[in-house]
């Protein structure tokens, strides 16, 4: 049964004043309480060459010592290493994940250095998308590993960006909030730093690299964000070493000629980075990751899978219709494949049959040939046999004649001997 919803004709909302306290003004507090008890998560990706100061900066930023083992310079490729920590400040719990790009910039051929980073970011988006697509999803207590901020460490060359920096940032800018920073800024002179910063910014603009824009649409942060944007890329110094300055201990790097104070804004932009990354824009970075970067990944992925919001006539296309269309397309393809396979099978059988017939014919021919050869051989043998038999009978005949002659000769011989004996005897008597 359809339910009619009555609305004012001009669809406008009317302002009404309340005559007493109702209580919905506690809604923001309810949200704060809920979020606080749930805890927050924040994931930072540090991209930069080995030894550029990534681990030191993370330790300095969060005022702690994270586990890290210095990487060697002979990694065969770039590998991403993620480590998660539970931190607590006042009553706010933060699940922090720091992802390091081990081996970045260490290979002779750096063409593919950006690939493992892009793959890592996409894998985290994919994991979230898979959770979202589940029937029974649990996004409430899901450990979100999507990267909220990418700190890109630029070497303090004072010169310009390397092509590796530009290529990597270009590949990442649609997937993550990039905050470029100049590392080890204590190694670059003040006047050079100013020029270096403008050179980097103009190179980023001319190469169409989109870095994270500090939001200026919300009143409370608009001013500070607008002021801070001018200082990009932040030139930072990292150190966990505490040095006594006046009567206060502060983080610094000590040199024979002086001390660089990490938290002194005249020495470097560390404080600005901490303000922008953690104190002012952490929630915006999380939000941008979800509404901009993840949304883009999700849209492309669903479109790739064949889902769309409208049909070719720009009419809304429901999930059910997409599913039906995909199913029919799949079944059609399946039938086509089946038919192709059947035809292929018939063809193969025919080919095999022809092959067998050919082989049978060959065999027959071979058999006939052998038979003929055998008969010829047999005839030759028979002829030879006949010849031999004839020879044998001739021989027998000759042998018999010879024996006859021999016996006649013997007989004649013995008669002569007898005659001679008789003659001898007669002469004696
Ligand atoms: P990773 O390989 O990028 O994590 O670099 P590490 O944080 O391990 O730092 C490598 C070396 O650089 C260590 O000796 C650090 O003390 C030094 N280092 C770190 N940050 C700075 C910095 O801001 N300035 C200078 N001059 N050295 C730094």
UniProtKB/TrEMBL annotation:
<feature type="domain" description="Septin-type G">
    <location>
        <begin position="38"/>
        <end position="304"/>
    </location>
</feature>
<dbReference type="InterPro" id="IPR030379">
    <property type="entry name" value="G_SEPTIN_dom"/>
</dbReference>
<protein>
    <recommendedName>
        <fullName>Septin</fullName>
    </recommendedName>
</protein>
<dbReference type="GO" id="GO:0005525">
    <property type="term" value="F:GTP binding"/>
</dbReference>
<comment type="similarity">
    <text>Belongs to the TRAFAC class TrmE-Era-EngA-EngB-Septin-like GTPase superfamily. Septin GTPase family.</text>
</comment>
<feature type="compositionally biased region" description="Low complexity">
    <location>
        <begin position="401"/>
        <end position="416"/>
    </location>
</feature>
<dbReference type="InterPro" id="IPR027417">
    <property type="entry name" value="P-loop_NTPase"/>
</dbReference>
<dbReference type="InterPro" id="IPR016491">
    <property type="entry name" value="Septin"/>
</dbReference>
<feature type="compositionally biased region" description="Basic and acidic residues">
    <location>
        <begin position="417"/>
        <end position="429"/>
    </location>
</feature>
<feature type="region of interest" description="Disordered">
    <location>
        <begin position="364"/>
        <end position="429"/>
    </location>
</feature>
<keyword id="KW-0547">Nucleotide-binding</keyword>
<keyword id="KW-0342">GTP-binding</keyword>
<dbReference type="Pfam" id="PF00735">
    <property type="entry name" value="Septin"/>
</dbReference>
<feature type="compositionally biased region" description="Basic and acidic residues">
    <location>
        <begin position="364"/>
        <end position="388"/>
    </location>
</feature>
């Amino acid at each position: 049964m359809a339910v009619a919803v009555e609305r004012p004709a001009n669809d406008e909302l009317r302002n009404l004043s309340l005559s007493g306290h109702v209580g919905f003004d506690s809604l923001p507090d309810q949200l704060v309480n809920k979020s606080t008890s749930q805890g927050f998560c924040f994931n930072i990706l540090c991209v930069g060459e080995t030894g550029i100061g990534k681990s030191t900066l993370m330790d300095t930023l969060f005022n702690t010592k994270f586990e890290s083992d210095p990487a060697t310079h002979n990694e065969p490729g770039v590998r991403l290493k993620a480590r998660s920590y539970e931190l607590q400040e006042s009553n706010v719990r933060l699940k922090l994940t720091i992802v390091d790009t081990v081996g970045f910039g260490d290979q002779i051929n750096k063409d593919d250095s950006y690939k493992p980073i892009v793959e890592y970011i996409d894998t985290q988006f994919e994991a979230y998308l898979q959770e979202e697509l589940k029937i029974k999803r649990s996004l409430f207590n899901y450990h979100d590993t999507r990267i909220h901020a990418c700190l890109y460490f630029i070497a303090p060359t004072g010169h310009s960006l390397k092509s590796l920096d530009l290529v990597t940032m270009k590949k990442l800018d649609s997937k993550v909030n990039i905050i470029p920073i100049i590392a080890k800024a204590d190694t670059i002179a003040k006047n050079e730093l100013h020029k270096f910063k403008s050179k980097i910014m103009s190179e980023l603009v001319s190469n169409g690299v989109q870095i994270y824009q500090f939001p200026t649409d919300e009143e409370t942060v608009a001013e500070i964000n607008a002021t801070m944007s001018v200082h990009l890329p932040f030139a930072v110094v990292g150190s966990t070493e505490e040095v006594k300055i006046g009567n206060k201990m502060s983080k610094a790097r000590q040199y024979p000629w002086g001390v660089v104070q990490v938290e002194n804004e005249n020495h470097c932009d560390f404080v600005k980075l901490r303000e922008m990354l953690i104190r002012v824009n952490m929630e915006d970075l999380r939000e941008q990751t979800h509404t901009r970067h993840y949304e883009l990944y999700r849209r492309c992925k669903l479109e790739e899978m064949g889902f769309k919001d409208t049909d070719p006539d720009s009419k809304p296309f429901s999930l059910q219709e997409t599913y039906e269309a995909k199913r029919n397309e799949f079944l059609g393809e399946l039938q086509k494949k089946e038919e192709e396979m059947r035809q292929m099978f018939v063809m193969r059988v025919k080919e095999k049959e022809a092959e067998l017939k050919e082989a049978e014919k060959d065999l027959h021919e071979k058999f006939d040939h052998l038979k003929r050869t055998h008969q010829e051989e047999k005839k030759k043998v028979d002829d030879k046999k006949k010849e031999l038999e004839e020879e044998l009978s001739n021989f027998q005949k000759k042998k018999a004649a010879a024996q006859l002659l021999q016996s006649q000769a013997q007989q004649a011989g013995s008669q002569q001997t007898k005659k001679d004996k008789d003659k001898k005897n007669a002469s004696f008597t």
